[in-house]
């Protein structure tokens, strides 16, 4: 099946990014209630915490929602079982290869949509039975691959026959249309949802996003093998400086330990990791999740027909 809305039983072909520590039951239910696919991000949480989030989300929406599993988590295996026990219809994965869970998910009827940063992994995921893949470009916030969305999405759509969902660098209708032009059947967004009333992050985080400009993000963690896009601040600059000076992985890790939580929960402007994508510079106001999703999709055909022709 190539139609994402039918595949996922949703109104608009939009999936919420699996933002660790951010995407809880409040955000997930708001996205699902607005017609997209909301996700609870497991991040580094343990399996019982994720189960409680799922139970709370079921109370807030009767629409489908999924779970994102961050595969570097020590709890990934236990969470892989919780999603089956809780009858979660869709799982997305990030930061690794979910191959070893695929059989049990497929047997339980869970739809599996891995995030992939390369054609090779997309092909491997298709062979392993993935229902779709999310091709996530390096414009994204958080843990990123090397390729841009513009280069990655068409190369993946050319090489797999399952639906491809584009992610990274999408915040308005022009970028939604560009994603479809590249062969995507749907989009995943994260950064644009941070600037919403429903997003459960510290006010300082929202303010950093809406005041960011185009060059305000930077990738830390390359040397540690976990490239991570964040908004520039004291912590990010310190990290880059230490890495350039040849700091050990332990020294670097000490700096980042707990830094995402410090951004999300404490709004600690100096030592927090404010993960955000390059589109942060386009986001200027806080809106409701419903408004954000409708701004991306309502009247899209009309908008497309009014785009300037390349023949000027
Ligand atoms: O996973 C994400 N974004 C994330 S996860 C996260 S929590 C975290 N923070 C710091 C370090 C590590 C994790 C914050 N943001 N996006 C999906 C994504 N997946 N981006 C890139 C990948 C990826 C990379 C390599 C997926 C698969 C992969 O495969 C390697 C292999 O094993 O073949």
Portion of residues in beta strands equals: 5-15%
Detail the poorly predicted runs. none
CATH fold-level name of the largest domain: TIM Barrel
Largest pleated sheet: 8 strands, parallel
Physical arrangement of strands within the biggest beta sheet: 1-9-8-6-5-4-3-2
The Rg value, from CA coordinates, equals 18 Å
Into how many domains do the coordinates divide? 2
Q: What is the name of the CATH superfamily of the largest domain?
A: Aldolase class I
Question: How many strand elements?
Answer: 11
What is the helix tally? 15
Class per helix and strand makeup: alpha/beta
C-alpha end-to-end distance:
38 Å
What is the CATH top level name of the largest domain?
Alpha Beta
Helix content: 40-55%
**Overall mean pLDDT:** 96
Which kinds of small molecule does this entry bind, naming each only once? ligand TUI
Q: Which CATH-level-2 architecture of the largest domain?
A: Alpha-Beta Barrel
Write structural notes for this entry.
The protein is an alpha/beta fold. It has two domains: 7-200 and 285-297, Alpha-Beta Barrel (TIM Barrel); 203-280, no CATH class. It has 15 helices and eleven strands. The protein has helices spanning 4-8, 25-33, 47-60, 76-85, 99-107, 119-127, 149-157, 173-181, 191-194, 203-211, 234-244, 249-256, 259-264, 289-297, 300-305; strands at residues 14-16, 38-41, 65-70, 90-94, 111-116, 133-136, 142-143, 164-167, 186-189, 217-220, 228-231. The strands form two sheets. The chain has an eight-stranded parallel β-sheet with strand order 1-9-8-6-5-4-3-2. Helix 2 packs parallel to helix 3, helix 3 packs parallel to helix 4 (76-85) and helix 11 (234-244) runs antiparallel to helix 12 (249-256). The longest helix has 14 residues, at 47-60. The protein is globular, with a radius of gyration of 18 Å. The termini are far apart. 48% of the residues are buried. The model has no long low-confidence stretch (mean pLDDT 96). The structure holds ligand TUI. Ligand TUI binds next to strand 5 and strand 7. Residues 20, 70, 72, 94-97, 115-117, 121, 136, 142-145, 226, 228, 275 line the site of ligand TUI.
